[in-house]
Amino acid sequence: MTALEHPARRADGPGRPPARVPFPVVDEVSRHCLQEEEPETVHIEVHLPGTPDPDRLRAAFGEALRRHPRILMREARGPWYRRRYEWELTADPDVEVVTFPPAEPDALKRARERALADAPPLTSSPPIRLEVVTPSPTDGTPAAASRGSVLFLTINHTALDGPACLRVLATAAELYGGRDNSPAAPPSRTPAGPQAAQEQPPPDAPSGWSPPARVAKGSPEPSPGNGMLVAELPVPRRPKGSPFTVNDQLMVATALMIAHWNREHGARPRPFRITMPVDDRPRDATMPIGNGTRLVEVPFGADELASREWTPEATRDLLRRTSERTRALKALPRPQLGRGATLLTAPVLPVTLRAAATRGLRRAAGPWTSTTLLSNIGRVPYTLDFGDAGRAHAVWFSAPARLPRGLTVTTASTAGRLHLALRWSRTLLSHGDGAHLRDLFEHYLHATEHTESGEPSAKKEEGPK
To answer: Which of 137, 260, 317, 340 measures 20 to 30 Å from 76, CA to CA?
Structure first.
């Protein structure tokens, strides 16, 4: 059940308390496992060629919140023995959501740091904030050169996910600019025969019972929290008629990037599992707002990633197997976090007792947590046209990167370009490690393009220097 599908307890009339919605499974598990050192934030940054008018943007975003009322909520207070956390729906925001921070050196860098380190509180409605940042010349971005602006959305992931908040921003863009921001049709996928119709994992999928590989430790930083690096790359080309998608190419590039990194750091070869969010919600104005994705895990055997030279034939074969697995996993009906989480959050015991049990089980299950998370938003379906401020020419997302994963990969494409965000736990990696991982990702993503006979061979795994 998604966030919007929980019926609200209506309480209309003067003097009555606001309507309340029980926490869905995803929200409750996240709420149980919050950590101050590594906040559960999702960050979205939207680059515009111009700067929106402050008053008009505040009015448009405020109206967008009211048109998607499920975003106007805060965590309701309750006694320790209550059996559910509940969201309290509000008619208006409790705080000023849209702000225009003053210009400062390294403004873009500082805004990214805030997005990773400072989560909007769950006790104020809505649990998001929107900052309009003017990059400084020291940021070295096209927006800084053109005096454009960057919209920074910071989301408390306990309450909302990135696609839901982007839907609200698309509504705000339409209200601000007065132009249609209807979502584009999703890209079609080439049929792959009877295998695609099977609602079970392909027979060659590795077992999911073995503890998967971890991302090898690099050069940790002394301060806790998350670090992040963003990059703009070409959208990978797919050979004509290929059954695999760009998402499959990103999945393979992520797996090969980490396999290469782990070998460089002397890690023993082990199977991989990469978590992949699947979002089946519509992208129009009826989109349910909340945490609406379900998580599936794509497995890779240790022997599949052991090669040191990826020829076009070997890469094509890995892409084929990955495509079959992702198709089958997407077709499988499954609760958002699996059936175990559904049982764990059943309102039988008080939430304080369930919280302790959830945290204990999470620690115990740490060795079986997937290697990393790849969240591919895909082509941003909205034009995000802000009228006099222009259309978005770049959109980046990033997802939380707490241990034991310690690394997440998030991608989206806008204006024909791929926008990549690598986010990591500073107790695992440093900024220099992130830069090397970015180079490895770009190298292997390029290799997925050369899978036709007669194409130049992919480079040997020495990869980027």
So the answer is: 340
